[in-house]
Amino acid sequence: MTSFAGLAPAMAKALEKRGYTTLTPVQVAVSDPAIGDADALVSAQTGSGKTVAFGLALAPTLLEGEERFARAASPLALVIAPTRELAMQVKRELEWLYEMTGAVMASCVGGMDMRTERRALERGAHIVVGTPGRLRDHITRGNLDLGGVRAVVLDEADEMLDLGFREDLEFILESAPEDRRTLMFSATVSREIASLAKNYQRDAMRISTAAEREQHVDIDYRALLVAPADRENAIINVLRYYDAQNALVFCSTRAAVNHLTARFNNRGFSVVALSGELSQNERTHALQAMRDGRARVCIATDVAARGIDLPNLELVVHADLPTNPETLLHRSGRTGRAGRKGVSALIVPVSARRKAERLLQAANLKANWARPPSVEEILQRDDERLLADPLLADKIAEDEAATVEALVARFDARQLAAAVARFFKAGRSAPEDLIEVPLEQRKPRERGNDAIPAETKRPRDSFAASLWISVSVGRKQRAEPRWLIPMLCRNGNITKNEIGAIKMQPEETYVELSADAANGFLEAIGPGSMLERGIRVTVLEGQPDLTPQPYTRAPGDKPAKRYDRPARSEERRADWKPRGEFEKKARPDGKRDFDRPEGTAAKPNRKDRDESGRKPAKPFAGPKPFKGKRDERPGKPKGRKPDRL
Question: Which of 505, 539, 573 is the last residue of a domain?
Answer without folding.
Answer: 539
